[in-house]
């Protein structure tokens, strides 16, 4: 006799585990599969930054709700997410000032707690931040960071307590169709029947989709962060990103910072099963030197760690979230393009709503598959 579940979720990152919890909470029988362990893919190496401001209003709308979800975690979700409130600054060059200020005004009117700071106000908050070339910055007081592994494990444990079956080390080999629609998943140790399958397998989602005749435009890119410790006294600063200089950072434990790159060669395509996982001190120091163009305290900071992982990217840099119009019963939650952790609680809720009602939240419309697939 075949195994059976109302819903099969493939991929135990933060999105997959959030979906499993929301579905189990709604009373569905759930099987969550991962060929590795919970958060063993890109979720586990994520810097876990939660912030609201993006130039794309659709991303900002969801991200604002995401910040609220993590800030109010104990009121709504199981376990803990490790939220730390640090605030966040997004540096804006002169050429983007007008559009940014207009965007901030729209987002504030919609309830996002954002502020526009002039260079003098930036230096009041971070005296050692060089503001040459900046017209100002967007400040988010409630932004911060979480622990993505803790978050995924909390969702998974909560789902398990509600009856979901969590299977680490069980690989999905093929999403099986019959008469055009989903009928289940073939795994490395047998078939599981189901009328609903959630493909949340990150960069592996594309291979699974292609195998069932519904290819997805997703490719993996190598992503690295360095962890640096500053010398001497260190007054806490908010997280910061600067697209023109090409970096982002967030504070870690006192006196240390997690730093990543924005754009450039860091986004080169890779095979997620066979890529270079090394990141030398020399490379971490190159990240430091880039960020030190803005943040004086980083001059002389020394490497104390690094993380090497990957994103599952789409051509337009936005997630794919929604039912696949080519395969009834199949939902895609992949191609998250580095945004997945911020939105995980909301994506999980949207997935459960679709399974239970057949409807998608209007807020998810910008991420529908139809924009990129036939």
UniProtKB/TrEMBL annotation:
<dbReference type="InterPro" id="IPR006076">
    <property type="entry name" value="FAD-dep_OxRdtase"/>
</dbReference>
<feature type="domain" description="FAD dependent oxidoreductase">
    <location>
        <begin position="6"/>
        <end position="354"/>
    </location>
</feature>
<dbReference type="Pfam" id="PF01266">
    <property type="entry name" value="DAO"/>
</dbReference>
<keyword id="KW-0560">Oxidoreductase</keyword>
<protein>
    <submittedName>
        <fullName>FAD-binding oxidoreductase</fullName>
    </submittedName>
</protein>
<dbReference type="InterPro" id="IPR036188">
    <property type="entry name" value="FAD/NAD-bd_sf"/>
</dbReference>
